Amino acid sequence: LLKTLEMHVRLDDADRAAVRALSLRLRSLDASAYLLREGQVATHCAILLSGFAFRHKLTGDGARQITAIHIAGEPPDFQNLFLAVSDHNIQLLTRAEIAVVPRAELEALILSRPNIARAILTHVLVEASIYREWIVNVGRRDSRAALSHLLCELVVRLNARGLLDGLSFNLPLTQEQFADALGVTSVHVNRMVRTLEIEGLITRNGRRLTISNWPALQEAGDFNARYLHLGEVGSDGPVGTGRAA
Amino acid sequence: LLKTLEMHVRLDDADRAAVRALSLRLRSLDASAYLLREGQVATHCAILLSGFAFRHKLTGDGARQITAIHIAGEPPDFQNLFLAVSDHNIQLLTRAEIAVVPRAELEALILSRPNIARAILTHVLVEASIYREWIVNVGRRDSRAALSHLLCELVVRLNARGLLDGLSFNLPLTQEQFADALGVTSVHVNRMVRTLEIEGLITRNGRRLTISNWPALQEAGDFNARYLHLGEVGSDGPVGTGRAA
DNA sequence: CGGTATTTTGAGCAGTGTCAAAGACGGTGG
DNA sequence: CCACCGTCTTTGACACTGCTCAAAATACCG
What we know:
The structure is a homodimer of 245-residue chains.
Chain A: H1 2-9, H2 16-20, E1 25-29, E2 34-36, E3 44-50, E4 53-58, E5 64-70, E6 89-92, E7 96-102, H3 103-112, H4 114-140, H5 143-160, E8 168-170, H6 175-182, H7 186-198, E9 202-205, E10 208-211, H8 214-221
Helix pairs in contact in A: 3-4, 5-7, 5-8, 6-7
The structure holds a DNA duplex (30 and 30 nucleotides).
C-alpha cells in the first residue's frame, strides 16, 4: 500500500519500517468529496489507494481551473506539507479509498530520515514539472493538441502504475472536467473528442476509452514523456545523477 | 547573499555555517544567456544575485511558453535538484550576477541537515503553488486579467524582497515575453497594456512601470496573494502550522 | 422506470490571432 | 555628439478559434 509511493521515487533501505510505523487510518469516500479546501489548514495528509482525484482553483467570476489529476497510488496532499493555509482545492473525481496520515507525523518523518526527505522532494519536483507542462498545454497548444496531450499523460501515468488494461482505461473525467483542465469550454471539448474519434486516434464505449492509434495521438498532442521523469531512480548515495530517459 | 534565500523560507540556527561553507563561484552573465537547457543534466545550481531570469519550454511547432519568472535573490535551479535531465530551459532576462554551487554539494547539504531540507522543500512547494496559479492565469482569465495578475504578482514578489521603488520598478520583460508568459500574442499584449494605461491602472515611461491604481489592478487581475505564501515562517519545531495570511 | 447528469448539435458572436508596416527607443561606432 | 541599426512597440484590417446560449438526445443511478 503505502510503500508503493515511497518506493516509486527513490530506493530506501530499512527506513521502510519507519514508513510502516506511521499511524494511518483507512477511509472510503464518495465521488466529488473534498480532501481539502482552499483556505483550510491541512492537518492530515491523504494518499489515494484507489480512484481518482483532482486539484483545482476557482477564479473570482466562478470559473474553475483544474491544475492536476491524481491517480490511484499517488499522494495528492504532499503539496500542502509545510505550508500554512491551502491555496487550492483537492476533490475526488470518483469514489475512492484513501489512507490518512497525521501531517505532523509525516513531517517529522521527512525531517528525520534523509532518504525519505529525498524521496518526497523528488516526488514534489516531478509534480512541479508536470505543472510546467500543464502550463504549456493550456497556454500554447490548441484544444485538439491539448486534449491529446492530456490523454497521453494519463495513459503513461496509468501505465507506469500498471493501471492500464491493454490500451484502454476507464475515463474518470467528464467532458466538462476536461474543459476545466484545458481551459476551454465543455462544448468545445466535445467537438475535439469527436474529432479525435473520427480521426481514428481514440475509441469510446461509454466511460471506457481506448487508444486506437498511440503514435498518432502522441503526435497530435506534441507529447514527450520526458517531463514525467519516469524511470529515474537515481543512486542511493547522496549525489545520484541518475540516468537519462 | 546566499543567506537571504535560505532564511527567507524558514528560520535556521547555526547550520547557516554549513550554508556559508558551500563552495560558490560568482559569475556575471549577459542578458538571454542560458543557465540550463532542456535535455541537459544540471551539474551546478545557480542563485540569482541580481537581475531577472525566466523558465520556459518550447512546443513542437516552435511556440514558447514561459512558466516562471525569477527575481534577484531567488534560486531558479532548485527545480532540477534531484532529477536527471532537465525538462525545461532557464534563461536570463537581463544581465545578471549569479552564484554557482556544485549540485552534489547542495544535495548533500540538504540531506544532512533537516532544517535546510525543510527550507528547500518549503521553497519548492511555494514555487509549485505559483505554477498552479499560473495555470489558472493562462487557462481561465482573459488577457486583460491575466496581464494584470502577472503584474500584481511581480509587484508583490519584488516588494517582498525590497526591490520595489515606491510603486514602480523596471519592467524586465518585453511585450513578446509577456505574451509567451500569458499564452497570447505580443500584438494582443500590446493592446492590453495600452488598455490598462488608458484605464489609469498603470503608467509607463520607457522601461519603467508604475502602478497608478493598485486596488484597481488587483481587482482587474483577480489577484489574491495567498498563493505566494508570504509571511509564513512557521515554528522551528517539526510541526509548525504557521499562521494564515 | 423516472430523474438527473452528461453528451451532442446548431447558429451567431467575441476575443485573439495573423500579417505587415510604420514608429520609437536605445545602444554603438565613427 | 550624431547617424545608424537592430530591437521593441504600435496600429489596422481581416480571419478564425473557441465561446455563448439553448435545446435535444443519451447515459447513468438508485
